[in-house]
Amino acid sequence: MIEIIQVNISGEDKPGLTTALTSILAQYDATILDIGQENIHKSLTLGILFLTTPEKSGFIMKDLLFKASELGVQIRFTPIEREAYDAWVARQGKNRYIVTLLGRTVTARQIADVTAVIFRFGLNIDAIRRLTGRPPIEGVDERAAKACIEISVRGMLGDEERAAMQNALLGLPKSGLDISFQKDDIYRRSRRLICFDMDSTLVHTECIDELAARAGVGDQVKAITARAMRGEIDFTESFTQRVALLKGLDVNVMEEIAHNLPFNEGLERMMKILKMVGYKTAILSGGFTFFGKYLQQKFGFDYVYANELEIVDGKLTGRYVGDVVDGRRKAELLRLLCQVENINLAQSVAVGDGANDLPMLSLAGLGIAYHAKPKVQANAQQNITSIGLDGILYFLGLKDSQIDP
Question: How far apart are the C-alpha atoms of 383 and 369, rounded to whole Å?
Answer without folding.
Answer: 5
